Amino acid sequence: MFEKRTAEPEKSKKITKAEKPVKADKQAKEKTNKAGGLKNLIIPLLLAAVVVSLIWLVMQNNVKNAEAKGQVVCAAQDISANTYVKEKDISKYFTVKNVDAEVIPENAVTSLKDLPEGFYTQKKLCADQMIYDGDLAGKDSVMEKYQNGYQTTSVAVEAYNNSVSGRIRHGDIVDLYALNPDTKQLQLMVSQVYVESAYDSSGAEITDDDGVAVDFTIRVAAGEEPMINQAVAWKEIQIYKVK
């Protein structure tokens, strides 16, 4: 008879001590590789985000700076009062500058295109001075009388303290008086006369605020010659600045 044998259950395979470190190392390496892969992805993304943020900030600052600036028309050089500026000469006398928008007043001229085709300066303008609407005039009743031509002549005053009212220089408008020998009273000879130049007692031209002017070259419009000649003949001329 055959002896009946029962099948023994298969014994589970035991992990030997030598096998355990190998699997542990493998798992650790896999974790390390995964972590390294994530780092390799995250770092470039972070760098890209930083770069994008910087570009955005720069663009925002540029936009803000552009919004914070504005343009105004300024004098390109010193310009005497009552100077007539032709359209072709605008760029010679005026320029456009960028300034902080918050300092630009409502009545400032902001473009050369806003200037008239021909105009007069109402007062003396210094180089780099901002131009306002009231600084210019398309027409000037005083200066218009010289449009049909004029002559120039010189008049002198004898005593500055008693004969000149105000600091008078090139471009000023004056009234000219003379002492009437018959009435012993000052008589207005010519009103609103344009001063071409001013000189001191030595004959040197005065162009700045310093110095005492006693001799003047003035414009004489048509019809004014007789009165100017009469004033010179009477002497004791007095000049009063009106503009």
Note down, in words, how this protein is organized.
There is one protein chain. With 243 residues, this protein is α+β, with helices and mostly antiparallel strands. The protein has 4 helices and 11 strands. The protein has helices at 19-68, 90-93, 160-163, 225-234; strands at residues 69-75, 84-86, 94-100, 118-121, 136-137, 150-156, 164-165, 173-180, 185-199, 215-221, 237-241. It has a 6-stranded mixed sheet with strand order 6-10-9-8-11-7. The chain is elongated, with a radius of gyration of 45 Å. The termini are far apart. The relative contact order is 0.11. The mean pLDDT is 80.
Structural class: alpha+beta
- Extended strand count: 11
Please provide the ordered H/E string of secondary-structure elements.
Answer: HEEHEEEEHEEEEHE
Span between N and C termini?
Answer: 150 Å
Task: Give the strand order, joined by hyphens, for the main sheet.
Answer: 6-10-9-8-11-7
Low-confidence stretches: none
Total helices: the number is 4
The geometry reads as: elongated
Proportion of β residues?
25-35%
Percent range of helical residues: 25-40%
Q: What Rg, in angstroms, do the CA atoms define? A: 45 Å
> What is the arithmetic mean of pLDDT?
80
